[in-house]
Amino acid sequence: MDAAKQNEMVQLGHILLQVGSLLMSAGANTGRIRITITRIADAFGYRTEMLISHRTIMLTLLSESDEHFFTNLKRTHPHGVNFKILSGISRMSWRVVAEKWSLEQINAELARLTALPHYPRWLTLTLVSLAGAAFCRLANGSPEDMIIVFAASFLGLLVRQETVRMGFNAYLCVYFAALTAALVAGLPLKLDAPNEHEPAFATCVLFLIPGVPLINSFSDLIDGNIQIGMVRGINGLIIAFAIALGLSSAVIIYQI
Amino acid sequence: MDWLTLVEKFLWSGTAALGFAVLFNVPPRTLLSIFAIGAAGGLVRALLLEAGLNAVLASLAGATLVGVLSISAAHNKHSPPLVFAIPAVIPMVPGLLAYRMMIGLIKLSGTLPPEAYSQVLYETINSALRVMFILMSLAGGVAIPMLLSRKESAKHLHFGTPGDEDDVA
User: Fold this and answer.
1) Best residue in A23, A100, A127, A138 to probe B by mutation, most B CBs within 10 Å?
2) pLDDT in tens, B97-118
3) How far apart are CA B13 and CA B8, in angstroms?
4) Fewest Cβ atoms nearer than 10 Å: which of A56, A61, A160, A187?
5) Helices A121-138 and A143-165 meet at what angle, rounded to 10?
């Protein structure tokens, strides 16, 4: 294997680790990460072996003759669900195969995908709060309750975004958000008739539910990736616990 | 159940799914499908509950519908099924039950007279088990259609138009 080929292997290895790391933090399940990395490596004629864990990915690339190999580890980014990246990388992996992309093209596409903007902040806040109000309605809340939940979710998510930005522990951010939302939604419960606004208080923290960790946990477990499935499940449970702690703090503060 | 309630279930389920879709930063081209899938799942669940099915089975049916629709949407919108399925099942999460379970646990850890204790214990365990089984059926309902298809990717699945093999994730 000449130097150019060797160089390509190393570059591809780093790109694949980057792809895996991005997918993991964006919220892909383990099967998808494995398939995507294998698909791209196949297109370049390399075999892969990998070890995927919650915060680290280990990858070995093997040349066809098994003479040369590349092995490296990469720590994944902190988890933050981003389905635009998930979807973009998945699409890219097919185009790499079909259109025989070069390494430079993949690098450029990855740079483009990671630079894609999120939805505007006001839109996210509004729609998530509206989702909270919708939850409240589904739990038989009155229009009044829906307004309470809208306000509670809005402030709760705002607190979550700000505390994440300030670099607090991720579970603590969830706790702060749950506490804020519960304090807002608990106020009418405290001041007004206690039994009337229960749906509002119960649904005000639902914007925090760890849907992605729990569903990925389940699909990893039944897919045979037991170890990472358990890790994801425990992560989801700690988030759920932080939410419960936030709610119960509000219950204790208000003496409901 | 009158039709107005059903329309409401449909709309609010869709709205909740849409909110989570934006929170998870989905590609804009998938937003409308996520609304529709979430709304359809919520509607089916509400209909089955109304027909007298228990909450666990109704949630399983709703989530399975979400799973199947997500696979077909993945085809048309060039995104992995997960992108549609996760925001769309979240409206079915039993928030009120989970809340009652939590309040029950707080009560149980406090000082209750023995006669009240068994009543609270009964209610708490009942809510907790229902929450657990509903969550499992939601996750299972989403995952099972993908497993049953036994393909590595939604690209190889065919719904409707044959020969439609664009770059699907």
Assistant:
1) A138
2) 888 888 888 888 888 888 889 9
3) 8
4) A56
5) 140
